[in-house]
Amino acid sequence: xxxxxxxxxxxxxxxxxxxxxxxxxxxxxxxxxxxxxxxxxxxxxxxxxxxxxxxxxxxxxxxxxxxxxxxxxxxxxxxxxxxxxxxxxxxxxxxxxxxxxxxxxxxxxxxxxxxxxxxxxxxxxxxxxxxxxxxxxxxxxxxxxxxxxxxxxxxxxxxxxxxxxxxxxxxxxxxxxxxxxxxxxxxxxxxxxxxxxxxxxxxxxxxxx
Length: 209
Description:
TetR/AcrR family transcriptional regulator, elongated, disordered N terminus, about 210 residues, 9 helices, about 0% strand, single chain, mainly alpha
């Protein structure tokens, strides 16, 4: 049996390597979402994970590589919350998106900080990752929403713009709410959003005749 496959304390080398990688990712998520990415060092990550520095470089070449992995997981978790519903009415699609986003941000403040603040302006690479995930969520959300509304179909370009508008508005609402220490209370804010969305949809349908 090769060293790579030889078990140690009941686990193979690959299993131990995978476990260490998960420890580093968990530590990265925690520190990026509390002290912040720019204030975090490889040494701090390893101390948080209880590992020697050499184990960091076993899995990641740079701290930015770890941020990419952490961010991918954060967005996957967020996506499960904001696109979880299967509503077939426009207002409910929009409400499900923003309600899911608010709920996720309040329940996951560490992950929310990574997504809303810590990935911004790090590098061109991270910026493009941020944009690509926003586009993906926006495309799916706009596709769901446009399927519930009467009128002509959107062109691909219009669909992209619509998705950008929806995701951008949702982000701004959640960022403001987090900065305001989750005030007003979630249900009160949702009532205001419901009223606003209802007005927007009614105005849009009236414009279509």
